[in-house]
Amino acid sequence: MSSTVPPASPGPALRSSRKVATASLVGTTIEWYDFFIFGTAAALVFNQVFFPSVDPVTGTLSAFGAFAVGFIARPLGGAVFAHFGDRVGRKPMLVYSLLLMGAATVGMGLLPGYDTLGIWAPVLLVVLRFLQGFGVGGEWGGAALMAVEHAPAHRRGFYGSWPQVGVPLGLVLGTATFAVLSATLTDEQFLAWGWRVPFLASIALIAVGMWIRLGVHESPVFQKTMDEKAANRMPVLEALRTYPKEILLAAGSFLATNSTFYVSSVWLVTYATQQLSYDRTTILAANSVLSLSDIPLILAFGLLSDRIGRRPMFVGGMALLAVFAVPYFWLVSTGSVWLFLLGGLIVQVARSAVYGPQSAFFAEQFSTEMRYSGASLAYQIASILGGLAPLLCTALVAATGSLYAVAGYVVGIALVSLVCSYLMTETLRSGLRDGVRPAAARG
User: Which residue in 262, 263, 250, 265 sits closest to 381, CA to CA?
Assistant: First the structure.
């Protein structure tokens, strides 16, 4: 039985697809902006503001540890939001996740530092970071499914890539804001209050996101399931029982893409400025340029997956990442911003080949009544290790003194993702499905 509801005419259906994809893109951009500015602040100032009583290396480890808490919370948030997303709808969960993220982010901007609150400052920072992670845990599944389930059957990869673009846009918005503040304020001003500006600016962004998200309709595919009263009472548990292989393989396929994103956008900011003598503003600007380049790549690979398949994109991207990991870190270590950009661009191509078609590929692995649960669990399981990457990279360099220890780590996780991607079932022709999908031969 087909899971799509035929539209009355192609024109309205196409406009609806674009409207929902745009709403997913804007909301996702805002939520990832909130999530990423914590990582930039952790790399630049949190060790001084919230962990000043320890040595610099321990302070950096503590700041990245707080950063990682958000990733530990993400699977929990993903499970809770997925449960209700598969029970009551995709749209309400998108609204609630945006509100939770916004409240936690503004709270961080208002939080006094260690000098004022003592030990309670880092404790409250970790609590707020946990709430951020809990909120963003429910964001991806809802935004991705809304875009994919509203899309025409032959363009699910393309429209599913729109909310994926929210990640680099959120990073650009956050990093560019920090870059402007870093360039215009003195170090003392930046440390005293400048870093708070991006967090407090979230108030305006959340208002815009709420206005847009409240204006879209529920997914027609999910609405059909609700009309037929086919929703599961415990969709997360049912997804784990029915699709354990699909969840684990999907999580593994995303491991390297997620981990290396945080290696380059968070950990490398600290390492490049502290150990390789790159200028802080230059590195922030370079990361903004690389994130901008990600946008057309993600859209192009999403569209390409509608022609040649999802799995070839995943396998090709991870093969490129595994081969290029060592040359990438050599380029970074030269101290040349132009070689830094060249290496970063090639890594972006490898990651975008996965991230572009990911929404469609993950959604097509699961039946409608468990799709939010299955896709979210896979995404957020991978995010745990991704969030630990800055902490792990700091520890690897501290233990070995070599940047190439990080390169070896990247090669290893790229190979894991390559194997998992190869073992996943191609879904370009099978598409979205009603009911429980029987085991299918890989093809």
Answer: 250
pLDDT, tens digit (0-9, with 9 covering 90-100), for 136-168: 877 777 778 888 887 887 888 899 999 899 888
Q: Which residues of 211-220 are buried (b: 16+ CB within 10 A; e: fewer)?
A: ebbeebebbb
What whole-number distance in Å separates Cα of residue 13 and Cα of residue 159? 13
Contacts of 204 (CB under 8 A, 6+ apart): none
Determine the straight-line distance between the first and last CA of the chain, rounded to whole angstroms: 21
Q: Which residue has the tokens 């804007």?
A: 26
DSSP reduced 3-state for 2: strand
| Per-residue pLDDT tens over the stretch 166-203 | 888 888 888 788 888 888 888 888 888 998 999 998 88
State the Cα–Cα distance between residues 156 and 176, nearest whole angstrom.
31
pTM greater than 0.90 (yes/no)? no
Choose the most confident range, by mean pLDDT, from 26-30, 67-71, 276-280, 402-406.
402-406
Secondary structure of 367-397 as H, E, C letters: EHHHHHHHHHHHHHHHHHHHHHHHHHHHHHH
